[in-house]
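Case study 2.
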Amino acid sequence: MWAHGRIAWRRIAPFALLLVAYLAFVFLFWRAGSAVVGGDFRFGPHVASNLVEFLARMFVPVARVPDALRLPLGIAFALIFLWLLARPLPRPWKFALLWIPVTVLPVAFLDLRTSTRYLYQPSMGLAALLGMAWARAWAAAPSRRRALTYGLAVVLAVQVIVMQVVLARRGGLARREAQSKPGGIS
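Prediction:
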């Protein structure tokens, strides 16, 4: 249906109604009385802000996206996502692309501070999408295999650098917390 470039609304309507009923049940009854989640899981303007925050943190090692960049980033992410969905991509590619918002949406409703620990599953969708695109480019253009290999090496090197920055920040934060506690390291 969506993979063929046209949407049959009559076929989607029962699923959309089921989704609305499920969300109403989860938010109005089940989560409202949860001792674990309590009032930290709700609808509100923080959802869009959290989505932008999570998507930005998938690509850039920032502790927090500046408020001035949230709206432009949100619009850019939405336009890129819609543009990709509108393209005639293979079904596995669209599945990987849709995996990202499906797995990040549940935690976007938390009104707690965002955390990168929720990005493991959305990152799997991104990695699958990029891996399939790279494999197709590799198979389609044997003359460009050297450039593709260098490109992949650059991407991996950037990822290693990003992880080193994140781990260094996390280590510095742990040291500061240990020093601030009574009886901590002096």
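The longest helix spans residues 145-180.
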